[in-house]
Amino acid sequence: MESMVAAQRLAGRRVLVTGHTGFKGAWLAAWLAEHGAKVTGYALPAEPGESLWRMLDDGRIRSVEADLNDRAALDAAIADCDPEVVFHLAAQALVRRSYREPVATFASNVLGTVQLLDALRAAPSFRAAVVVTSDKVYENSGQIWGYRETDPMGGHDPYSASKGATEIAAAAMRRSYFYGPGAPHPARIACARAGNVIGGGDWAEDRLVPDIVRGCLGATGCVVLRQPNAIRPWQHVLEALDGYMRLAGALLDGAPVDQGWNFGPSRDDERPVIDVARAVVAGLGQGRIEIDPAAADLHEAHLLRIDATQARTALGWTPALGFTETVAMTADWYGGLHRGTPAAALCRAQIASYEARRCAQTETPC
C-alpha cells in the first residue's frame, strides 16, 4: 500500500496556490514546499494585523500579490509559473463581511473563479485543479442528516450563495473547456467542500477560534459568544488540506473524480460552539467565556452537517484527528506562539506530527 501522506504525491510539481496569504492557503503552501513542490502563490496582500503568511516568511514560495480579476496580472503569473496543479482557495470567506460587501463577495468568489479557470485554458502543462468552496454551498433546510454531494446548491446569505454559485460556475467551465469528449484542454477539475476548519494561525475577523484567542490572551481575558449552541463540523486545517491534496493526486492519476467532494469529521466530532470555546480556553490555560444575551442580528445556520462518505469510499480519505486532538493542536499552536516559538517551527512540527499519524493509520512507511 502506498504512503498515506498526500503531499508526497505532489513533490517536484509546479503548483499554483491562490489565496496563499490567507489561513488555509498559507498552511497549504508551506506543506507543499516542505515536500519539494515548486509553489507559486497568487492572492491579495494579507489582511492588516497578525498574519500567518507574514509570520512564515517562506522564501521557498514565490508570491504574487494581485487580484484574480486583474486579468493581465493573472495571465502573466500563470504564464510565468506554468502550473501543473492548481489549488484555488482565494475568496472572500467571511459571512458577516458578505452582508456588508455583497458585490465584492460575488465578484471575488464567482467571477474570480471564472477568471482563473478561463486563464488556465492557456496553460499548456496544467493538468489538475481543486476549487475549494465551502460546506455552506448547500441549500440548508435544517435536515439532521449530513448534506451529500448530490444535494442542491443554495445559500441564505451572500457568502453562502456566492459559494454555491461558484460550484455551478466551476462545473460549467469544466464541462465546456476541460477534460471530456472533444474538450480543448486535458486538465481535470474538481470542487472540495469542508466543514468549519480550525487550527493555528487563523486571525480572521468574526471567526470563533481567533476571537477566543484574542480575548483570552488580550487585556480583558474574555471571549463573548453570540451563538453558543450552534453545531458545526469542526476539523483541523491539516485534515481538510490532506483531502484537497489527495483529490488532486486522484485527478493527476486520471481517476473519474471530476465533481464535488465533501471533507468533514465524523458525526461524533460535531460539537456546539460552546464546547470548542471551553476546550480552547482549557488548552490555553487562561481566559473566560461570556454568552451574549442578545441573539445574533444576522442569519447563520444553526445546524449544518456534511456527509463525507464519498471521500471515504472513493478516495480512501478518513479523518486522522478526533475533536479532542483537533482542539488541542489548535490551542497548542497559539500557546506556543504566545510563549515565543516561531510560527514556521510550529507549523513544521504539526505537519510532521500529522503525517506520522496518517502513516500510523495504515501502518505504512512514509
What structural category do the secondary elements indicate?
A: alpha/beta
* Unreliable spans: 296-301
Q: Termini distance?
A: 11 Å
Annotation field: number of helices: 12
The SSE order reads EHEHEHEHHEHEEHEEEHEEHEHHH
Estimated radius of gyration: 19 Å
Overall strand count = 13
Structure overview:
Strands 3-2-1-4-5-6-11 form a seven-stranded parallel beta sheet, with helices on both faces. It has a two-stranded parallel sheet with strand order 7-10. The protein has helices at residues 23-34, 52-56, 71-81, 95-100, 102-120, 158-177, 208-217, 237-252, 273-284, 309-315, 323-338, 343-362, and strands at residues 14-18, 38-43, 62-65, 85-88, 128-132, 188-194, 197-198, 222-225, 231-232, 235-236, 260-263, 271-272, 288-291. The chain is an alpha/beta fold. Strand 1 (14-18), helix 1 and strand 2 (38-43) form a beta-alpha-beta unit. The chain is 42% helix and 14% strand. The model is unreliable at 296-301 (pLDDT under 50). It has one domain (6-296, 304-361): Rossmann fold (3-Layer(aba) Sandwich), CATH 3.40.50.720. The protein is built from twelve helices and 13 strands.
